[in-house]
Automatic annotation (TrEMBL):
NCBIfam families: tRNA_TsaA. This is TsaA-like domain-containing protein. Gene3D superfamilies: YaeB-like. The keyword Transcription regulation does not apply. Residues 331-369 are annotated as: Disordered. The keyword S-adenosyl-L-methionine applies. Pfam families: TrmO_N (PF01980). Residues 116-262 form the TsaA-like domain. Residues 334-346, 357-368 have a biased composition (Polar residues). The chain crosses the membrane at residues 35-58. Keywords: Membrane, S-adenosyl-L-methionine, Transmembrane, Transmembrane helix. It comes from Prunus persica. Belongs to the tRNA methyltransferase O family. The lineage of its organism: Eukaryota, Viridiplantae, Streptophyta, Embryophyta, Tracheophyta.
Length: 417
């Protein structure tokens, strides 16, 4: 009879234990505590059974957790393997792309291209190509402000550049008259293998033995003095860059590796002094007209005073800036058009080496009356070149279309310390 009663109590205990095992985790602790208290009241036998069932429950739960952990570890390993495989795939694709870009196909003579965009634009004292020096540093007073595109070049990129005295400027000859050839098929866009050299009076040399702007890839390289760095702007001097020049890159000039002692150059290049003029003088009319123009032009100028601007003109005209055609046939530069008006015949199909273009001369009435024009800082400077190779600057006037376009430009006051 006692055994039967104890069996009934044991059955009830098992029922309660199974109910606790099947309950959710949130309520299992409550049921477990209840069953534990109930088993303690029933006696040692029921308590032993409770602990056995509890141990079994936690072992099974531990095995389930171990199984889930194993599945998660396996899933993580699979994901890492997939990521590694994708990374290797991207690397192989990039390598294949670089190989395809750098190795032209044998059955296609068209060379591969690399998309590049300017990082900034030059605001220069040289409003037109005419008068722009053939080489950098020939005109120390020439100035330009490089305005960087902040969408491509953050101002922090210029930090440290001001610690250098000079820098290299890589740019595009954007005013070449044959730029349309860049968009033609290479087999049809013929370029001249030889160009006329100014210092050789028109004698031709191989294109790559010169610094002619007319090149298969019209990219220029100039060294300039770093005057100041301000925000997203760089002030340069000694430049040979025309206004509006697109800049591709800027690199610091490092003397120990950029200056080569004992470097050899051809003899014809060493004789560049033949393009120097005898003297430069200014007429009284020039002084008065400059004073009148400076009241307006001085506000947008990179020069502090009319005297400083006058010195710039003197440095520019210290070299014969005329084109080869103008030097060889100065009085034959004008032809009559069909309507009887005189035009400046300044075309030069051979593209001589100089970066400047012929000025807008006025028709000469006699052998000594040729008037040449140079545009600097939006002002048109008129001058004569005498038979003794001396320059006389006659007058200066504003050029309305250029002056208007020079509004809101860099000026001297922005850089004044």
């Amino acid at each position: 009879m006692g055994y039967s009663t104890e069996s009934k109590w044991l059955t009830a205990t098992i029922t309660f234990a199974l109910a606790a095992l099947s309950a959710s985790t949130a309520f299992s602790c409550m049921y477990t505590n209840f069953v534990f208290s109930f088993c303690v009241a029933l006696g040692p036998c029921s308590l032993l059974f409770f602990w056995s069932v509890t141990v079994y429950f936690w072992k099974r739960k531990s095995r389930d957790l171990d199984s889930k952990i194993g599945e998660l570890e396996k899933s993580l390993k699979t994901s890492l393997d997939n990521c590694a495989a994708e990374r290797q795939g991207r690397i192989r694709a990039q390598q294949a792309l670089r190989k395809a870009l750098t190795q032209p196909k044998l059955d296609n003579v068209e060379l591969n291209s690399y998309p590049m965009a300017p990082i900034g634009v030059i605001q220069s004292c040289f409003s037109t190509r005419n008068g722009t020096p053939r080489q950098p540093v020939l005109v120390p007073l020439s100035r330009a402000c490089l305005i960087f595109n902040t969408a491509r070049v953050p101002p922090a990129s210029l930090e440290g550049l001001g610690e250098y005295s000079h820098c290299w400027v890589i740019y595009v000859f954007h005013q070449n008259t044959n730029l349309e050839k860049l968009w033609k098929d290479p087999t049809k866009s013929k370029f001249k293998a030889k160009v006329r050299v100014p210092t050789l009076n028109g004698e031709r040399k191989g294109l790559f033995a010169t610094r002619s702007p007319h090149r298969p890839s019209p990219i220029g390289l100039s060294v300039a003095k770093v005057e100041a760095v301000q925000g997203h702007m760089l002030l340069l001097s000694g430049v040979d860059l025309v206004d509006g020049t697109p800049v591709l890159d800027v690199k610091p000039y490092i003397p120990y590796c950029d200056s080569i002692q004992g470097a050899r150059v051809p003899k014809w290049l060493a004789a560049d002094s033949i393009l120097a003029v005898a003297s430069v003088s200014f007429s009284e009319v020039f002084t008065s007209t400059l004073a009148d123009c400076w009241e307006m032009a001085g506000n947008n100028s990179l020069y502090a005073s009319p005297d400083e601007f006058k010195n710039l003109i003197k440095q520019v005209l210290s070299w014969d800036i005329r084109s080869l055609a103008q030097r060889n046939r100065p009085h034959d530069s004008f032809i009559n058009s069909e309507n009887g008006k005189q035009l400046n015949d300044s075309s030069d199909n051979d593209h001589d080496e100089e970066a400047s273009s012929p000025g807008n001369e006025q028709p000469p009435s006699s052998s000594g009356d040729i008037m040449y024009h140079l545009t600097l800082e939006g002002l048109e400077v008129s001058y004569r070149l005498n038979s003794d190779f001396s320059v006389v600057v006659e007058k200066v006037k504003e050029v309305s279309n250029i002056t208007h376009s020079r509004q809101k430009r860099c000026n001297y006051s922005m850089w004044r310390v």
